[in-house]
Amino acid sequence: MGEFHAGTTFISDFLQVVMYVAGGLFVFCGKIDLADFTAFVLYIGVFLNPVRRIISFVEQYQNGMTGFKRFCEIMDASPEADTPGTVDIKNVRGDIEFDRVSFSYDDGKQVLHDISFSVGAGKTLALVGPSGGGKTTICHLIPRFYEVSSGAVRIDGRDIREFTRASLRRNIGIVAQDVFLFNSTIYDNIAYGRPDATREEVERAAKLANIDEFIKSLPDGYDTIVGERGVKLSGGQKQRVSIARVFLKNPPILILDEATSALDTATETAIQKSLEQLARGRTTIVVAHRLTTVRRADEILVITDEGIVERGTHDELIERGGLYASLWSVGNKEAE
Ligand SMILES: Nc1ncnc2c1ncn2[C@@H]1O[C@H](COP(=O)(O)OP(=O)(O)OP(=O)(O)O)[C@@H](O)[C@H]1O
Ligand SMILES: [Mg+2]
Fold this sequence. Notes:
single chain, 336 residues, alpha/beta, Rossmann fold, six-stranded mixed sheet, 10 strands, elongated, binds adenosine-5'-triphosphate, binds magnesium ion
């Protein structure tokens, strides 16, 4: 735009300068008289006006077309379509099984290699391990945010690819590591967990997630707009809104990926208690760096770049004296 405007202004102004100089010379030499010269000065103004208008039209046209192209790109994006023959998943018991699952992101780097484990209905499985091991990736494979490269993920013994995505996701509650909030009211953001919920249900969920008091302290209460991606809330507040969503949704399968990592210890303990209540009778997958929160899990998997390096209950793993035991003792020393 800079080049375009500088260019066109330069040419039209240059034309005027040429006109004045040449006209001045002609008048000086007596080839034309002053009246003719004055007429030309007026003509040039009349001539340049429509040229300027065309230029600004070109600019508007370019702006409009780029906007229109972006609009078309969004409208043309095809939503995830279910393949024919998929059915709604019903009456979920909650057995989850990873059968020799391998997975790589689009960039080709293999993140999961030949991972197998299973969680019985109503049990709690914890995933721990160093950052970047693939814990979040495992969590994202269950609601089919990504498709496995090979192997299969099964729920109640059936491959999740046999189910429609919408029905699958209705049955899975996920508190993700990076919380996503819509630029709408807090109420809408919690109700997103179950859009047909009543006002009382939403408020009860907020109470369980320990955020009701905070919301009521805001001038607009539940109708406070949270801003793009929830920028007006703190990390812990966002996390609690997302936990409230899960309380409201009440799903048979629960995935908690660092669900309480951004909270202070007192709030964490309080929410941990309600989460434990929520987890009762549901299949739960917990990811946590603070090992005290996963201690009571039925099975703990230690995941590193090499895959599952250890598995067992807390006591078994401590006895084994491997990676988990060393992570545990580091955590404990810090606590002391
Ligand atoms: N969307 C993505 N595209 C490409 N690579 C990704 C993507 N998400 C994660 N990865 C890569 O996959 C690997 C595993 O990531 P993941 O998020 O599963 O780790 P994590 O175990 O959850 O770590 P943390 O404990 O830090 O949350 C990382 O090396 C990361 O670089
Ligand atoms: Mg993660």
